[in-house]
Amino acid sequence: MIPSVLPTYNRAPLSFVKGEGSWLIEADGRRFLDLGAGIAVNALGHANPDLVAALTEQAGKLWHVSNLYNIDQQQSLADKLVDNSFADTVFFTNSGTESCELAVKMARKYFYEKGQPERTTIVAFEGSFHGRSSAGIAAAGSEKMTKGFGPLLPGFVHLPWGDHDALREAAAKPDVGAIIVEPVQGEGGIRPLPDQCMKGLRDLCDEHGILLIFDEVQCGVGRTGKLFAHEWAGITPDIMMVAKGIGGGFPLGAVLATENAASGMTAGTHGSTYGGNPLACAVGNKIMDIIADDAFLAEVNRKAALLRQKLEGIVAAHPETLESVRGSGLMLGMKCKATNLDLVKAGYGAAVLLVPAGDNVVRLLPPLNITDEDIAEAASRIDAAATALEQA
Ligand SMILES: Cc1ncc(COP(=O)(O)O)c(C=O)c1O
């Protein structure tokens, strides 16, 4: 008999009833150190008092009014995002997938309005992940995500990661309008795009008049130690997808764009019932107040260096099980020699939550405000998990 919850997930036998900072607590009182943070969502940990206050204060005033009216919290969050990024304008969504939908629509509408309606093709990369909607799975293109769901949304081509010749050839085609890429691939196995490649992509897009779309759903909002990951490379996109961390656990996403890239999106061309609602934006405003701050981001970088150093030590101590550490900021991956899923399972035994990713990688995406003590605890629990796996 089919379970009452559609069985699209292989769930671990854990049910959490409470969260405190970087910790999740089971009904029986067991405490797990959460290095997944809801897959890069709980940017400030669980039950953060500032976020709880922002949400509950707003909840007592106004939940929802629809986008037929001005929404003050939405306006102020849009202003903060514009002030702190390349963008001139923002549309709010409820998830990364919805941000992908709009990014694709915006790019196509741009060329339609510019009198180049043939430029509908979007270049994407193998190993990428952009969400589970029809546009999202077509953009990512992997068989795992698309098999059985055809006919797929047309107009995407997929290039191997790091194949510069293929990229140059694709970008020169007259039907290509945009390139979509994660500055750090998340689901694909924590693969950062080197700064040189980021710059090369920008140059290529400028040369051919192509829009550059960054998917910063997982790597954005302070995760890599800059507010947005592309800042490390010193270049900017035309369109950017955001979600996850911007809501700190409350569903919120956004598409940020330059005035030029957004020029086709006039009244009536897009909408969302819930996108930019007062509750989500009250939380998003508080997230921005805390994270878009040099001192906070400096701490993320310091903690990232500390965690990375400890992970390097664990890899050195377990050469049969682990191969290397990679990633950026607090978006780290341990490439495994053992099966990554087995290490994640061993983590449950050591009461530490890790997240599997592609390319046999185990992901660490802890809250950005994880404490030094919890980083030390994380290292000792991962070490214990690796030891348990070796002794199994
Ligand atoms: C890079 C990237 N893009 C898009 C998405 C889809 O986001 P959501 O699950 O909020 O729809 C994800 C989710 O993991 C992601 O990591």
Question: Layout of SSEs?
Answer:
Blueprint: E1 16-20, E2 23-26, E3 31-34, H1 37-40, H2 49-59, H3 72-83, E4 89-93, H4 96-113, E5 121-125, H5 134-140, H6 143-146, E6 156-159, H7 164-171, E7 176-181, E8 184-185, E9 191-192, H8 195-208, E10 211-215, E11 239-242, E12 253-257, H9 278-291, H10 294-317, E13 322-328, E14 331-336, H11 340-349, E15 352-353, E16 355-357, E17 361-364, H12 372-391
Helix pairs in contact: 2-9, 3-9, 10-12, 11-12
The structure holds pyridoxal-5'-phosphate (PLP).
Keywords: Amino-acid biosynthesis, Aminotransferase, Arginine biosynthesis, Cytoplasm, Pyridoxal phosphate, Transferase
Binding site for pyridoxal 5'-phosphate: 96-97, 129, 215-218, 273
Binding site for N(2)-acetyl-L-ornithine: 132, 272
Give the key terms.
alpha/beta; 392 residues; 37% helix; pyridoxal phosphate; four-stranded mixed beta sheet; Aspartate Aminotransferase, domain 2; seven-stranded mixed beta sheet; binds pyridoxal-5'-phosphate; Aspartate Aminotransferase, domain 1; aminotransferase; transaminase activity; globular
Description:
The protein contains twelve helices and 17 strands. It is of the alpha/beta class. The strands form four sheets. A seven-stranded mixed β-sheet has the order 4-12-11-10-7-5-6, sandwiched between helices. Strand 13 (322-328) and strand 14 form a beta hairpin. The two termini are 34 Å apart. Bound molecules: pyridoxal-5'-phosphate. It is an enzyme of class 2 (transferase).
Brief digest:
The chain has 392 residues and is α/β, with parallel strands linked by helices. The chain has helices spanning 37-40, 49-59, 72-83, 96-113, 134-140, 143-146, 164-171, 195-208, 278-291, 294-317, 340-349, 372-391, and strands spanning 16-20, 23-26, 31-34, 89-93, 121-125, 156-159, 176-181, 184-185, 191-192, 211-215, 239-242, 253-257, 322-328, 331-336, 352-353, 355-357, 361-364. It has 2 domains: 16-34 and 294-391, Aspartate Aminotransferase, domain 1 (Alpha-Beta Complex), CATH 3.90.1150; 50-291, Type I PLP-dependent aspartate aminotransferase-like (Major domain) (Aspartate Aminotransferase, domain 2, 3-Layer(aba) Sandwich), CATH 3.40.640.
